Structure formats: structure tokens, C-alpha cells
Amino acid sequence: MKVDFKSLQIGTMESEESYLSIKGRDSLLADAGGRFLSTLNIHLLAENTGNMLVLRVEIATTLALTCGRCLEEFEFPISAKLRVSAAESAEYEDSGEMILIEDGQAEIMPRIEEEIFSLIPLNPLCSEECRGLCPFCGANQNLTSCSCENNDIDPRWQKLKQLNTK
Ligand SMILES: [Zn+2]
Ligand SMILES: [Zn+2]
To answer: How many angstroms is it from 151 CA to the middle of ligand 2?
Structure first.
């Protein structure tokens, strides 16, 4: 998604505020087992500092992630602030810090998506206390207490135990 900065002429000291509400790209989250539950809200404050734009970006959305223990989906709200500078080719430095303004427009989504991606935990949990699935019957132990015996035995040992009693 490109943001249009044509109204902010480079070289003039102006600022411009905009609010965007867009649909997040689910393919961004597919590898992490997630999806966007709500729209991605972006508050953008662009300040013209003379030869470049400083963009203060606030993002807020809610994701659905899959718990690594009980495999249930849970809501994961995200809000973050980031700062990006943007410049036209004459002032542009390819340091990875800056984005390029072409024809008065700059592509800010890769930065925003990078930020969202960095906020997703490696092992998402619906709650720190999530009790996960029963290793014997697969029941979600947050919802039910199954009647499996030997719940305290590691399933790897369970196999050995069966061998010994044969
Ligand atoms: Zn869970
Ligand atoms: Zn069970």
C-alpha cells in the first residue's frame, strides 16, 4: 500500500496527519499460524523536516494466533509505534533506515508488516497457565479433565511400561 505525500511538498515545513484502515494481508501471518481478526488501523503523522519526511506511525490491530499447547485460536491485540524517514531520490540513502518517495508516494507497508511480524511470539500461548492437550486422549485440558490414568507419566515412558508388562 502506497501513501500519497504529494500534498506535502518537500522543502516546505509542513505536517500532515492521516488515518488509514485497511485489511491486513493474511499471507504475512500464515507461517506463524495466524490471521488478522480486525482491520489494521494506521495513524500516520508525516512531518516535513525540509529535505525529508519523518513519519510517526502508530498501528493497532487484533490477530488470531494458534496456541502452541492447546492448539486453540486466541485473540492477540497488537499496538506499536514506529518511526520511518522517507526522502526523494536526491536525499535518499539506502541504509535500510529510509524509504524512497517516488512520484510523491512512498510504500510504508513493508515496514509496518515487519513490525507486526516481530511482535508475534515464537511460541504463542493462549495463556501462561494453558494446560494443553492430554498426551493420551488429546482432550483440551483447559475445558475438560479427562479420565486418562497415568497422567503424570511421560508418554515416552508409557510405551516402555506397556512393553514391560507383556
Ligand atoms: Zn492454549
Ligand atoms: Zn486424556
So the answer is: 7
CA torsion, ordered 4, 9, 14, 15, to nearest 10 deg: 10
Single-letter code of the amino acid located at 43: H
Distance 112 CA to ligand 1 centre (A): 27
**pTM value > 0.70:** yes
Helix (H, G, I), strand (E, B) or coil at 77: strand
Instruction: Say how many Å lie between the CA of residue 131 and the centre of ligand 2.
Output: 12
The CA distance from 41 to 139, in Å, is: 37
Q: What is the pLDDT of residues 58-74, one digit of tens each?
A: 999 999 999 999 999 99
142 three-state secondary structure: coil
What average pLDDT does this structure show over 42-47?
A: 91
